[in-house]
UniProtKB/TrEMBL annotation:
The chain crosses the membrane at residues 6-27. It comes from Streptomyces racemochromogenes. This is Secreted protein. Keywords: Membrane, Transmembrane, Transmembrane helix.
């Protein structure tokens, strides 16, 4: 076998190995993002118009999230938040729209105390999506109902649903106390 033939075979083998390595790395990254973000992965693919743009966005969210100082709450603070939630629920009977506003405020306060920036709804969604992608739809639904409630366009049943949605995220933020 000539030297040039041997070099061509080695170069071809290296190219194939590199292609396989890159493909496996891309697939591993995709699997990681799908697992971490859950339903938020597909939502972002749709929103961004493609897998690559979505994966860049989700990766940027991870990088940003890793810089946050997400902290646990001491048991006493957890109890105080839980007690405050109970009060908000009791208010629902007399003031459904006001209770939804209170629930939104309480979720924001819990986020802030845990270390999540609360620089607006879209920022909160971005930051929550990394660790709470599976309950993020609850937050979106509650936010939408609250916005309609502000305009007087939400029924009492929708306001009740908003409370359930807020509760799902609230419970997860309150009980998911693993160190990041």
């Amino acid at each position: 076998m000539s030297t040039s033939t041997l070099i061509a075979i080695v170069v071809a083998a290296v190219v194939v190995v590199l292609a396989i390595t890159v493909t496996l790395a891309v697939l591993a990254r995709r699997r990681h993002l799908r697992n971490r973000f859950g339903p938020e992965y597909e939502r972002t693919v749709e929103e961004k118009g493609g897998v690559l743009a979505a994966e860049r966005d989700l990766h940027a969210r991870e990088v940003r999230h890793d810089k946050l100082d997400i902290r646990e709450l001491p048991p006493e603070r957890q109890r105080q938040f839980a007690d405050r939630w109970s009060e908000v629920q009791v208010h629902f009977v007399d003031q459904p729209a006001g209770s939804v506003d209170e629930a939104d405020d309480l979720v924001a306060k819990l986020m802030r105390e845990r270390g999540y920036p609360t620089d607006g709804y879209h920022g909160a969604v971005r930051d929550l999506s990394v660790e709470h992608g599976r309950t993020l739809e609850h937050y979106r639904a509650a936010h939408d109902i609250r916005a309609r409630s502000t305009d007087g366009r939400a029924t009492t049943e929708e306001l009740r649903a908003a409370m359930v949605h807020y509760r799902a995220l609230f419970d997860e933020l309150l009980t998911d106390q693993r160190s990041r």
